[in-house]
Design brief:
The complex is a heterotrimer of chains A (651), B (291) and C (242). Chain A has 651 residues and is mostly helical. Chain A has 20 helices and two strands. In chain A, strands 1-2 form a two-stranded antiparallel ribbon. Chain C has a domain of 169 residues: Cytochrome c oxidase, subunit III, four-helix bundle (Four Helix Bundle (Hemerythrin (Met), subunit A)). The termini of chain C are far apart. The chains are: A mainly alpha (651), B alpha+beta (291), C mainly alpha (242).
């Protein structure tokens, strides 16, 4: 019996093949080719996942530091003073240190966590398998997309050292080419949105805005390119490499979500790249794309003229809004998939789900102005954006109804992935519904740029999307590593996390209603914020609890890779193609040389009269068995009878 | 397991709703003419939000409670791929509610933004900088003296670059506190010397970005007297959290006296007024009839 | 009653033997397609009768290139809208300069290079590999000529004192033409790659299905023509829209 071990060496995949079908030259040998510079989409997927987990813990650590500063202002944290003597003299962090935490936390989380793991991680690993392909369309590009992402992260983290260290920050190179560093911050202080002129003027605008900002922009530009490389692969693979019988309408919703996300990425990231280039030119080449004339610093008028800060906002948010859908759509796909699997019931309204994803993706390109209602742009434009924004709530509502519909009449198995998928629905509703408030121009007059919007986007991105990631990890871990994660530790992770995130972010709505502004290093200056002190404390305590709970996950993840109970090929009794690979983890070419044939849709659960409460996508109907054999396919031994196999049709 | 999760979802829902309805925290009292309309729209929206939130969470919690697989694993779920009619119905209802809210939500915005300030409005120029608010009053002649970035000298306290040679500038006053009359339309012109800021007085219900290179106008009418904290609401640098000032809403006659004062006495009077008006709406004053 | 969205129940109720159950017992699954259960198909091949993996590769090149073009298009669209936005807002110092004469030369060169490439491409389709190679070299040469002409044009402008930061129009000029040249250089790398493959071995390019070869040429040709069209667009934007 073949052992389920690491992903290599299937039985000879080319037995009898008269030609070399794909130029993969068989599985790689050697540690470097297997695990470092691998072109195997499965290895690349795991690399993305590990990068995201690493980045997430750094981002999380930063957010805890932020909470400590806000809740106990003036408190002397000796550990801070030890590690960051310049940024936290006497153990109290400077406001610029705080703002650099805000900036780096946002950048790391949005780019290196939410735009990597759901798409680059799970998408890379499972898209080819779920459509029945041997690998992505362009395996070398795939490898490049990961390593370019990695370089982007390295450049971003270098900002921490360039600004945080006076030694590095004051070298000639940093001063002459990057704009000067060593200010004691951990990077730029302009927020992840980096609005000019604050981000365009270099260090005269503030500490961290020299080399820190330059490195930050460079990192993002590098990330744009990596994303584009990835998007290429996803779309081409999905359009061109689906196996026989895998029509578009038989694809799992995960594949639809990765597809839509890739299209969004393809069209949105180039715009961010353009914006980044313009910003770098303003900073280092003396241009004035975003910098208007007449600016005064230290009684000197700057030489720039005629640029527009609002232009940056248009470009950034034209990217930025699709970006948040890039962050959430894979989570939606995973949730639909997992809900159906553990409810033992088909997805409610598969077609509507596909339609809703496309509607969200498409409409997502027309609403960017809702980030800019009060920016000074023409107020009539704001009205147009507002009405469009409210309409984008409709497809999201459709999806929510359908998730509930999937659960109605189900036979739910409360595994850990299922818990997180259910949690996703709850949190997505909590976060998304406040879009009704934020999307109205009139209400934005007060609510803009405060803790209300902070609550909104953290709930949808920082929690719901993360729950989607967790659900994906727990769900696919057995297939990726051939072992089960500990169910008990998973539950121990879920409950405090779910409670904790509610405790962190629901009170923030209240803070926003009272008027608390964003990106404030301290709340001590204003009387009107004093009544919120108890909530500030509540949020921080919840944050500490939640952060601590993530270590349970980390431990479970690492420990289970080595010591987890061995997994079978289909421990969850699921239906899609990843669960029928010949080995677990799958062999190098996924299916051991015999690509599967698909006979039915992806969510055939609870089919009446079927022998089991699920039917694999690869199970033919009785009549089809002969056709398959003639075509040279092997089929399942014995045939499942079935009535009502949902998706017979072609796409 | 499912039961516990269902209960937890309900408890979190109850807790969340309680945070909103317990009455301890809410919008600050409004002081502007458009305040009531704002608050009404806000409340309607929050009610819709709250009901939708609660309904969805209760539904989720109930489904989780009710539909756990218990006992015989051979029992199957309902085999259903969906229900077209139901989809259409709930989509239509949702769309109706969202679009209605969306249209309603343009009213106050249109009132404030799609019209110009009436002629004769009280005008003040606002000049924001890192990390201070400057308010430039035109004085009794109601004409603003010329300003220019080249003339800015923070070191000599000429924060807005006022041209002392300009005749109109003789009675201009520049201080770091915003004083405006109650019951009269007020027009602020917002400019920035360096980066983007945002003028925020919570009770006013009117945030506006202050963008360098632009002179953005905003107009409103106040209905209550008092002194109110003024903050910056767009990240502008390390002291963004400390860019504090006050809005003093004065009865019209007090205001008129103030702006008629010679330059030298203006700041002193402002300081006096700050003492006279504690933070908040001035109690015991008949509110000016609005509209 | 259960109602379905998409299809009706198929109606065939066959009671075959029980499906092989895949449970959580740690056994390697034998269900699904392929692998160990059942007779091996005669050619043991990886594709078993449906569209073979290797056949899909040529189409992938074309699809992939269209996607690349979408992305490049979006970037230049963003820069174009920045240009338009800026040009309508600036009160001062737009000061567009007139077309440097050298740019007419470069435009002619790039148009010619597209034409020669098309000749090459069609020659390859007809199997005339020597003709293909000759016209490919011509395209490559004309492409290089374009870059040289651009460099000369920039030199000329610098000589007149027009730099990147001189005024908004000049900023956009250098930015747009510079980025275009950078992307065109990528196209030159593509053409060179085709040259190398054409040299190596026989007419059709050894080790390759003819389909793959043609797809490569199609894809790179697509990119090249796009760069040509993009240049014409940039030219028009910079000098017809003021």
């Amino acid at each position: 019996m073949e052992e389920a071990t690491t992903p290599h060496e299937p039985s000879d995949p080319h037995a009898g093949a008269a030609h070399e079908p794909h130029g993969h030259h068989g599985p790689p040998t050697g540690f470097i080719r297997k695990y470092i510079f691998s072109i195997d989409h499965k290895v690349i997927g795991i690399q993305y996942l590990l990068l995201a987990i690493f980045a997430a813990f750094i981002g999380m650590f930063m957010s805890v530091l932020m909470r400590l500063n806000l809740t106990w202002p003036g408190h002397k944290w000796t550990i801070l003073e030890t590690i960051f003597p310049l940024g936290a003299p006497g153990g109290v962090m400077t406001p610029e240190f705080y703002l650099s935490l805000v900036t780096m936390h946002g950048t790391i989380m949005v780019f290196f966590v939410l735009t990597t793991a759901p798409q680059g991680g799970f998408g890379n690993y499972f898209l080819p398998i779920q459509v029945g392909a041997e690998d992505m369309a362009f395996p070398v590009l795939n490898m490049l997309s990961f390593w370019v992402t990695f370089i982007g992260l390295v450049v971003l983290i270098s900002a921490i050292f360039v600004e945080g260290s006076t030694i590095i920050g004051n070298t000639d190179f940093v001063n002459n080419f990057l704009g000067g560093g060593g200010t004691g911050t951990l990077g730029p202080i302009g927020g992840w949105t980096g609005y000019p002129p604050l981000s365009a003027l270099g260090k005269i605008a503030g500490p961290g805005q020299g080399a820190g900002a330059t490195l930050w922009i460079t990192s993002i530009a590098i990330f744009c390119i990596a994303s584009l490389l990835g998007a290429l692969n996803f779309i081409t693979t999905l359009l061109n490499m689906r196996t026989r019988g895998m029509s578009l309408m038989r694809m799992p919703l995960t594949c639809w979500s990765w597809f839509t996300t890739a299209i969004l990425a393809l069209l949105a990231f180039p715009v961010l790249l353009a914006a980044g280039v313009l910003l770098l030119l303003d900073r280092h080449a003396g241009t004035s794309f975003f910098i208007p004339g007449g600016l005064v610093f230290s009684d000197e008028v700057l030489a720039h003229k005629g640029g527009s800060p609002i232009l940056w906002q248009h470009l950034f948010w034209f990217f930025g809004h699709p970006e948040v859908y890039i962050a959430i759509l894979p989570g939606m796909g995973v949730t639909s998939h997992i809900l159906s699997t553990f409810a033992r019931k088909p997805v409610f309204g598969y077609r509507a789900m596909v339609f809703a994803m496309f509607a969200i993706g498409l409409l997502g390109f027309f609403v960017w102005g809702h980030h800019m209602f009060i920016s000074g742009m023409d107020p009539r434009t704001s009205i147009a954006f507002s009405v469009l924004t409210l309409s984008i709530g409709v497809p999201s509502a459709i999806k929510t109804f359908n998730w509930l519909g999937t659960l109605w009449g189900a036979k739910i198995r409360f595994t850990v992935p299922m818990m997180f998928a259910i949690g996703f629905v709850s949190l997505f509703v909590a976060g998304g519904i406040t879009g009704l408030v934020l999307g109205q121009t009139s209400l934005d007059l007060f609510i803009h740029d405060g803790y209300f919007v902070l609550a909104h986007f953290h709930l949808v991105m920082g929690v719901a999307a993360i729950f989607g990631m967790f659900a994906g990890v727990y769900f696919w871990f057995p297939k990726m590593f051939g072992r089960m994660m500990s169910e008990r530790l998973g539950q121990l992770h879920f409950w405090p996390t779910f409670i904790g995130v509610y405790g962190i972010f629901v009170p923030m709505h209240i803070m926003g209603i009272v008027g608390m502004p964003r990106r404030y290093a301290s709340f001590q200056e204003y009387d009107f914020l004093r009544p919120l002190d108890p909530l500030v404390m509540l949020v921080t305590l919840a944050a500490i609890l939640t952060a601590a709970a993530q270590f349970i996950f980390l431990f479970n993840f690492i420990w289970s890779i080595f010591k987890g109970e061995r997994a079978s090929g289909n421990p969850w009794e699921a239906t899609t193609l990843e669960w029928v690979t010949p080995t677990t983890p799958p062999p190098h070419d996924n299916f051991g040389g015999h690509l599967p044939t698909v006979y039915r849709g992806p969510y055939e659960f609870a089919v009446p009269d079927a022998p089991e409460d699920y039917i694999l996508q690869t199970t033919p109907d009785a009549g089809e068995e002969n056709v398959a054999a003639e075509a040279g396919h092997t089929t399942v031994q014995g045939v499942q009878g079935s009535s009502g196999n949902g998706h017979n049709g072609q796409h | 397991m499912g039961r516990a999760l269902g209960v937890l979802i309900w408890l979190l829902t109850i807790g969340s709703v309680w945070l909103f309805v317990n009455g301890r925290w809410w919008l600050p009292p409004y002081i502007s003419e458009h305040g009531p309309a704002y608050d009404r729209q806000f409340l309607i929206t929050i009610i819709v939000v709250g009901l939708s939130f609660a309904a969805a969470q209760i539904g989720l919690g109930w489904a989780v409670w009710r539909y756990g697989a218990r006992g015989d694993r051979r029992e199957r779920a309902v085999y259903s791929h969906g229900n077209n009619r139901l989809e259409i119905v709930w989509t239509a209802i949702t769309a109706l509610i969202f679009i209605t809210l969306g249209l309603m939500g343009q009213r106050v915005w249109a009132q404030l933004h799609l019209s110009e300030a009436p002629a004769g409005a009280t005008r003040v120029h606002v000049v924001a900088q890192q990390f201070q608010w400057n308010f430039h009053y035109p004085g009794a002649d109601k004409n603003f003296g010329r300003t220019s970035p080249a003339l800015v000298k923070d070191s000599e306290l000429n924060f807005v670059g006022l041209d002392e040679q300009d005749a109109n500038a003789k009675d201009d006053q520049v201080v770091t506190t915003l004083a405006v009359p109650v019951g009269r339309p007020v027009e602020l012109t917002l400019e920035s010397k360096d980066v983007t800021h945002d003028l925020f007085v919570p009770e006013l219900r009117y945030k506006q970005d202050v963008v360098p290179g632009m002179a953005i106008k905003m107009h409103f009418t106040l209905t209550k007297e008092g002194r109110f904290e003024l903050a910056c609401a767009e990240l502008c640098g390390q002291l963004h959290y400390k860019m504090k000032s006050y809005l003093i809403a004065l009865p019209a006659n007090v205001y008129d006296e103030l702006v008629a004062l010679p330059q030298a006495q203006f700041q002193g009077r402002i300081t006096q007024l700050i003492k006279e008006y504690p933070i908040g709406i001035k109690q015991g004053v008949a509110t000016t009839a609005s509209r | 009653m259960v109602t379905t969205v998409s299809t009706k129940p198929s109606g065939s109720v066959s009671t075959g033997t029980k499906n092989v159950h895949i449970g959580g017992t740690g056994r390697r699954p034998t269900g699904g397609n392929g692998s160990r259960g059942g007779p091996q198909p005669p050619n043991g091949g990886s594709n078993g009768g449906h569209r073979a993996f290797h056949d899909s590769t040529p189409q992938q090149y074309r699809i992939g290139m269209w996607l690349v073009l979408c992305a490049v298009l979006m970037m230049f669209a963003a820069l174009s809208s920045a240009y338009v936005f800026r040009s309508t807002r600036t009160q001062q110092s737009w000061q567009a300069f007139s077309v440097p004469a050298m740019l007419w030369v470069s435009t002619a060169l790039i148009l010619a290079s597209s034409a020669t490439f098309e000749v090459a491409r069609r020659a390859l389709r007809r199997g005339e590999s020597k003709v293909y190679r000759r016209w490919l070299v011509a395209s490559l040469g004309l492409g290089f000529g374009f870059i040289v002409a651009q460099l000369l044009a920039w030199r000329g402008l610098v000589g007149q004192g027009i730099y990147l930061a001189t005024n908004p129009h000049s900023s956009f000029f250098y930015l747009l033409t510079g980025l275009h040249a950078l992307h065109l250089f990528g196209g030159i790398i593509g053409l060179s790659y085709l040259m190398l493959r054409a040299r190596r071995g026989t007419a059709a390019g050894a080790n390759d299905g003819a389909g793959k070869q043609r797809a490569r040429v199609d894809a790179i040709g697509l990119y090249w023509h796009f760069m040509d069209g993009l240049w014409v667009y940039i030219f028009a934007l910079l000098f017809l829209w003021r």
